[in-house]
Design goal:
Shape of chain B: globular
Structural class of chain B: mainly alpha
Radius of gyration of chain A: 17 Å
Number of helices of chain B: 6
Helix content of chain A: over 70%
Number of helices of chain A: 6
Number of strands of chain B: 0
Strand content of chain B: under 5%
Largest interface: A-B, 38 and 38 residues
Oligomer: heterodimer
Distance between the termini of chain A: 23 Å
Strand content of chain A: under 5%
Number of domains of chain B: 1
Structural class of chain A: mainly alpha
Shape of chain A: globular
Order of helices and strands of chain B: HHHHHH
Order of helices and strands of chain A: HHHHHH
Chain lengths: 126, 144
């Protein structure tokens, strides 16, 4: 039963942090190149523009849910399972979600990179 | 890619690695937190390690947001994973910790992944929403 809770926690972390990344990425694409905007209109305009984007705050909220799911998953399972499993599955989840929701062109090169990074992260934490 | 953009990506890597390390160092001193003493989490910000970690993670968030404004998510994320490599190298060079063969293999895999993505374009043109259905209607229209 404890295993089921741990994996449910890992699933929640992966879903929440992927959702957060997708929402934040969409928000920042809408704002446009931050450096250019800062030079032309100043920092306050950048902050205002980011906060006004409808997907920014939900994105931060999803990230927060992901962070708290991590804390709770850690109370059920070992750090040596929860941290690498959630981090590497999030890389794979993001590649799939970026293709579906952001219409990014995830070619063979980026798929291979996502798998290498996910495997590498899992090995680093063993 | 300009030098300034590489600097922002380096910021994503360095700030997340150092921020996480400081936070972990601070939380070790704090001891275990349970649901019964959640208030200790609020006081944790008074710990200089944790305060430093939080400030560095805010810097990470700013550079991450900035990178996402001009690069694909699937381009920025592998760059952020270089932080794991950085932490291992700091452990090796500064704290003289030993790195196992498995971890070296992990470092090599992450580096290869990041290299693969970095060699490609940072922003790809968005795919058409329904290329298949668009083609279908086009071929139907072409028929008399």
């Amino acid at each position: 039963m404890k295993d089921a809770y741990t994996w449910a926690g890992i699933g929640l972390i992966v879903i929440a942090s992927t959702t957060g990344d997708i929402l934040l990425s969409r928000a920042m694409k809408k704002v446009g190149h931050v450096g250019d905007l800062w030079r032309r209109q100043g920092l306050l305009c950048v902050i205002g523009r980011v906060l006004a984007t409808p997907t920014f705050l939900p994105g931060v909220l999803a990230m927060a849910v992901g962070f708290y799911s991590l804390l709770f998953a850690l109370s059920w399972g070992n750090l040596s399972l929860v941290a690498p499993a959630s981090a590497s599955l999030t890389f794979i989840g993001n590649a799939v979600a970026a293709r579906i929701f952001l219409h990014e062109h995830v070619g063979r090169r980026r798929w291979l990179a996502a798998l290498l990074v996910a495997g590498g992260v899992a090995l680093m934490a063993v | 890619m300009t030098f300034r953009k590489y600097l922002v990506l380096a910021g994503v890597t360095v700030f997340s690695a150092t921020g996480d390390s400081l936070l972990a160092r601070g939380m070790k001193g704090l001891g275990s937190v349970s649901l019964h003493n959640l208030s200790s989490l609020l006081l944790a910000i008074l710990n200089p390690w944790i305060l430093g970690g939080v400030l560095l993670l805010l810097a990470f968030f700013a550079s991450y947001m900035s990178a996402l404004s001009w690069a694909d998510l699937t381009y920025v994320l592998p760059a952020s994973s270089l932080g794991y490599v950085l932490v291992a190298l700091i452990a090796l060079l500064v704290f003289h910790e030993e790195i196992s063969v498995t971890r070296w293999l992990g470092i090599a895999m992450i580096s290869c992944g990041v290299g693969l993505v970095a060699a490609g374009p940072s922003l790809t043109p968005a795919r058409k929403r329904h290329p298949a259905s668009a083609q279908g209607t086009a071929s139907q229209e072409a028929q008399p």
